[in-house]
């Protein structure tokens, strides 16, 4: 994945991916385009990629800007049999974590912060967000939005302690098309395992939230596990175990 391609970003992507792809120099959101494409009949495995994304979406309605040349803004189309967004989120986070493991030093720490952030050496390099589209009560498909920091600069910003980039952590150059191709290939594989014990185990093994003191949805306690549907199990100070499906997680110690 190292080295520098002489092809343009788009041409390199098309040469590697060989699948339905919509590429844009700049968009508001790859998710908007992917969801509209699903409604038009996009097939599973189709991808939407932009060099620059103006209004990328995150959990809790957060919005961010992906500058050109420094990151990956991607949406991947799935057509699962069941609408389990948490399983799609697991597959997305796992695919990115496995990619990061494959290019990092053996001493690097690749982990997943529940439920959807991938961290390298304790700081975030990626996040995923699945969104479904329905018609007449039937699932048409899911767009999995992915953002990956490749060479973003976070020094001297408010994110310096919590975010980083792949190149900063591995100490070398990587090419975005190679990273995209790796992640997409892993998504092709893991999307066939949605809802399986194999997927849950691989995702769970990389969760760094388990055993941590956390606060979520007004609950303070210890994260003790995550069930088959991806819900976080939190044992509060009164000894009650709460099953948390979604929420903003704060690590408190």
Task: Give the count of structural domains.
Answer: 2
CATH architecture of the largest domain: 2-Layer Sandwich
Give a quick account of the main beta sheet: strands, pairing sense, barrel closure. Answer: 8 strands, mixed
Give me the Rg, rounded: 18 Å
Shape: globular
- The proportion of residues in beta strands is 25-35%
Q: Catalogue the unreliable spans.
A: none
CATH topology assignment of the largest domain: BirA Bifunctional Protein, domain 2
In the CATH hierarchy, what is the superfamily of the largest domain? Bira Bifunctional Protein, Domain 2
The CATH class of the largest domain is identified as Alpha Beta
Sketch the topology as an H/E string, one letter per element: HEHEEEHEEEEHHHEEEEE
Termini gap? 36 Å
Counted by DSSP, the helix tally is: 6
- Indicate the percent of residues in helices: 25-40%
Mean pLDDT: 93
Secondary structure tally: strands: 13
Which structural class fits the helix and strand makeup? alpha+beta
Report what the structure shows.
This protein starts with 8 loop residues before the first helix and ends with a strand. The mean pLDDT is 93. It is globular, with a radius of gyration of 18 Å. It is built from six helices and 13 strands. It folds into two domains: 9-204, BirA Bifunctional Protein, domain 2; 213-251, SH3 type barrels, CATH 2.30.30. Strand 2 (47-57) and strand 3 form a beta hairpin. Strands 1, 2, 3, 4, 5, 6, 7 and 8 form an eight-stranded mixed β-sheet that branches. It has a five-stranded antiparallel β-sheet with strand order 12-11-10-9-13, with no helix packed on it. The protein is of the alpha+beta class and 253 residues long. Helix 1 packs parallel to helix 5 (176-190), helix 3 (85-103) crosses helix 5 and helix 3 (85-103) packs across helix 6.
